[in-house]
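User: My collaborator and I are trying to settle a disagreement about how two of our proteins should look. Neither of us wants to argue from intuition anymore, so we agreed to look at predicted structures for both before our next call. Could you fold the first one, then the second, and keep them clearly separated?

Assistant: That sounds like a sensible way to settle it. I'll keep them separate. The first protein:
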Amino acid sequence: MPWDEAGAPALTRDAGAETRPEQPAVPASEGAAVLRYEWRGAWVVIARGAYDMDSITPLADALSVAVRKHPKVILDASGITFADSALLNLLILTHQAGTLRVVAPSAQLRRLCEITGVDALLEIRDSVDTAAVS
């Protein structure tokens, strides 16, 4: 996914495709940020930073609203630098509540999912575009 100078998703125009409107970051604890936008009929939530029980609330709120209002939710997890059981639990709950795709999880998050077996439950994709059409 292209990013602009400020680190937000860049607006792109493909022939016949939608634009990706930027959404303001949702304040999270230090080092964590949540961005949201609509893309090809799916709601994309971008998580950046470290997520544990002290910092999970903004992401949990964003995913909860998204899964209630949109038929497909995509979590871009490429910017997650740390994750523990709080994030793992959130991913499982979101998956149970609706259609969730996890995109490009960091090596640490991917390993956490593998050792707990959650990778067999979640639908993990390489890109937002792939997740949107799957």
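The second protein, kept apart from the first:
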Amino acid sequence: MIRRNSLPLALCCFAALALAGCDSGAETPAQESAASSGENDAPPPPQLPGQIVRAFAGTELPALQFSDPEGNTLDLGQLDQPVLVNLWATWCVPCVVEMPALDQLAAEMEGEVRVLTISQDNRGAEVVIPFFEQRDFRYLEQWLDPQNDLAVAFSDGGLLPVTVLFDAEGKELLRVAGGYEWDSEEAIAQVREALAEG
């Protein structure tokens, strides 16, 4: 009789010991190092399902001013060249995923279109500067919009990222709500085609 009752107790003890080995607490230093070093065992980035739409073609680029972390000013109303305006934030996963692709696009289309990444982070330079310091972006500019003026104008319900292509006259040609593979051949061809048509 004692043996029969002790079997479930033994199984419970074994299960408790097994579960104790699955520590969901803080990572060990080795795990933290692997996670921060971007090794190949990292999970794949999320898909970027954004689609190019032209439903808002002709919308005017708002004459708003922004500054960068150094205090330089950008006046959208004074731009006289095609621009691709990207609204993003450091806390937005698809935004972060597409940033290297935007950097590649800016490199590929240098002289054809200026790529402006305008952060919608409320904390502005406090979070944007470290974000850029940790990455090797060579062509992206750090503009800040902590009041979210552009998100109010172009983002449906504040969803990010939103990227809008404007011609040299400040008229919208196309936009993408959601992440997009901006460095793909298709994306580059679409941007060039829209600029040629505009």
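Some points you might bring to the call about the second protein. The two ends are 88 Å apart (CA to CA). The longest strand covers residues 83-88.
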